[in-house]
Each structure stands twice: as C-alpha cells, then as structure tokens.
C-alpha cells in the first residue's frame, strides 16, 4: 500500500470508529432507558430512602390491629395477618409488572450493556487502526500526533483505553454512556473542524522524546478524563443521597454508592498523576532541550501543563486529608480537568509560542 492508501484508510477507520461509538452510545442509552422500569433490589446508597419512611418489621406499611381489638378474636387476627401478607405480596410485585416481566427486562438491560461494551471495543480497535495508519500515511513514516487533529484523535483514544483497561477491575460499565458520548463529540469535532491532510512533521518533532512525552500525556489525560467523569457522578449521587431523593429505578439509583465513586475517582487520578508528572515535568523538558536548547522557557503550553500538575497535586493532597474528602476534592478534580481541556483547546487555538505547530496547521 502507498502512503496515500494508508492515509485514506486512516480517514475511513476514524469515520467508521465514530459511527460505531454512536451505536455503542445508543446501546448504553437504551440500557439505562430499560433500567428505569427495573427496580434495584438493594440500590447502593439507598439508606436515605429507606429512612424516610420507617416501617415496623413484618408489616406492610399499614397499621396493624391486634387480635384483641378485632371482632372475631383470634380468627380476626388470622384474617388480618393474611390480609397483611397479601398486601406485602402486592408490594413486592410493585403493583406493576410481574416478576417474570421484570426478569425479562433485567435480561434486556444486561444484553444491551454487553452490546455497548462490545461495540466500544470494536470502535477502539478501529480507532487504533486509524491512528497507526495515519502515521503510515505520511512520508516519511512518523508518529501520528503532529497537529491538533491528530492530538484530538490520540487523546480520545487514551480515554477509551483507560476506560476499557479499568472496566472489569472497577465494574465501570455504568460509565460507558459518558465515555462513548465523549468519544462521539471529540471525534466528530476533530473530523469536521480540525482535519488536515497527513504530512511530514515539523523539525522540532523529530525526536524519540516526542513519542515518550505524548504517549505519557495521552495516558495521563485519559485517566484524568475518566476520573473527572467519576467525580461528576459522585457529586450527583452524593446530592441525591443527602436530600433523600434516591429512587429505586433509573441511572442514578444504579450507580455505586457515593463513597465508592469517590474512591474510584481517587484511584484513577492517583494512577494518572505520576504519568502526567513524567510527561509534563520530565519527558517534556528533555524534549524541549533537544528541540529548542532549553529545558524550560515559560511557553504557554508549558505553563498550563504545570498549572494542571499543581491542581491535581492539590487534589491528591486534599483527598488524602479527611476534611477535604468528598465534595471539595471532587470539585478540585473537575477544575483540574478543566485546565487539561484549556491547555489543549484554549492554548492551541488562541495562544502562541513554540508549540504553535500543535494548532490547525
């Protein structure tokens, strides 16, 4: 295949990956739409709901009359117990769909979730193929991150990669709808607004430190994106728990408890932080010295990479301090991800400096 063929294949692979991400998003959206009619048996974090309407053990929520006060004595008491048991049975059935129908819906929810994950894996493979062939489609062959289009595609792949790697370990399928939505938005914007034809790298990028620096940055930023999603969902879940407004159905009801979401966000950020530290404060300066003859020059890109590092260092410190766990730490994490986005979008589009090659041309 010629370089033109590889470049064309890359464009098609990214386009098909975008379409498959759309299908994955729809599958996860349908998963949660079906789940709205399937009550959670013991919804995580539902203690506030249970505490809102205390019911005596063994009752159905209606006043229980004793056998002494009931006409007919023991027979009346027995009748009341049978009535209570019938009402309890009605309550267990939810006065709605029967158990068989609920079981069928639960099975549909599970199938849709598995389809969403399978489509995400397929989209990720197409995504990776598009990245690899983008590099092969240049003359000479190079790494596929020489402009903002390629950085967008590579950064989006990093988010999917982190999600899929951690999917089984932390049971993150509930995050699939957010991850696939993120991928659809980023890839569509990259293809429609940022695309430039494949071409050679600018002289400053001819260094193997570019590979090390960008790979580490992509992995670190991907972890920060997944951590930001977990932090945002933590705020939603914690608010519902605090207000006692949790339901037994719906997306929020099926999320893990807020404490679990907080712990997941912390662990993902703790994984990404040292990688970002290496990318921004070790590999980046070494590459800068090779390309421009100095390790640090207060270029806007360098400054914002350092600001991002400071914010996430503050997050990890705050999260390790008991008084800052929960909402305060989650807000700092979201601010940190906002600096990541500004570093990529704002600086690339509106800034200037030695990193100007990372813009649209």
Automatic annotation (TrEMBL):
Residues 79-95 have a biased composition (Basic and acidic residues). Residues 145-355 form the Cytochrome c assembly protein domain. Residues 59-100 are annotated as: Disordered. InterPro entries: Cyt_c_assembly, Cyt_c_biogenesis_CcsA, Cyt_c_biogenesis_CcsA/CcmC. The chain crosses the membrane at residues 6-27, 115-136, 148-167, 174-196, 208-236, 264-283, 303-322, 329-351. The keyword Transmembrane applies. It comes from Nocardioides jiangsuensis. It is a multi-pass membrane protein. The keyword Ribonucleoprotein does not apply. Keywords: Cytochrome c-type biogenesis, Membrane, Transmembrane, Transmembrane helix. This is C-type cytochrome biogenesis protein CcsB. It is found in: Membrane.
């Amino acid at each position: 295949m010629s370089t033109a063929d590889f470049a064309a294949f890359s464009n098609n692979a990214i386009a098909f990956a975008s379409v498959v991400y759309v299908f994955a998003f729809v599958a996860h959206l349908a998963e949660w739409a079906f789940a709205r009619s399937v009550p959670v048996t013991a919804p995580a974090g539902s203690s506030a709901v249970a505490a809102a309407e205390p019911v005596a053990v063994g009752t159905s929520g209606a006043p229980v009359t004793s056998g002494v006060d009931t006409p007919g004595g023991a027979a009346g008491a027995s009748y009341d117990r049978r009535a209570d048991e019938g009402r309890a049975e009605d309550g267990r059935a939810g006065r709605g769909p029967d158990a068989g129908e609920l079981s069928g819906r639960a099975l549909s929810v599970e199938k849709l979730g598995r389809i969403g994950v399978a489509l995400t894996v397929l989209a990720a493979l197409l995504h990776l193929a598009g990245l690899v062939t983008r590099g092969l489609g240049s003359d000479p062959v190079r790494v596929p991150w020489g402009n903002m289009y390629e950085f967008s595609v590579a950064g989006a792949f990093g988010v999917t990669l982190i999600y899929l790697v951690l999917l089984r370990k932390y049971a993150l399928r509930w995050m699939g709808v957010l991850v696939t939505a993120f991928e659809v938005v980023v890839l569509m914007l990259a293809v429609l607004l940022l695309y430039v034809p494949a071409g050679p790298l600018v002289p400053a990028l001819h260094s193997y430190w570019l590979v090390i620096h960008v790979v580490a940055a992509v992995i670190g930023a991907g972890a920060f994106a997944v951590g930001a999603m977990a932090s945002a969902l933590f705020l939603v879940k914690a608010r519902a728990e605090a207000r006692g407004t949790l339901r037994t159905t719906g997306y929020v009801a099926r999320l893990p408890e807020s404490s679990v979401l907080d712990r997941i966000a912390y662990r993902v950020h703790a994984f990404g932080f040292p990688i970002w530290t290496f990318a921004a404060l070790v590999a980046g300066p070494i590459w800068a010295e090779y390309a421009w003859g100095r390790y640090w020059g207060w270029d806007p890109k360098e400054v914002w990479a350092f600001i991002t590092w400071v914010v996430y260092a503050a997050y990890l410190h705050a999260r390790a301090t008991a008084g800052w766990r929960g909402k305060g730490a989650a807000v700092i994490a979201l601010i940190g991800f906002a600096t990541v986005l500004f570093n990529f979008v704002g600086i690339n589009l509106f800034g200037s400096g030695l990193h100007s090659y990372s813009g649209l041309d």
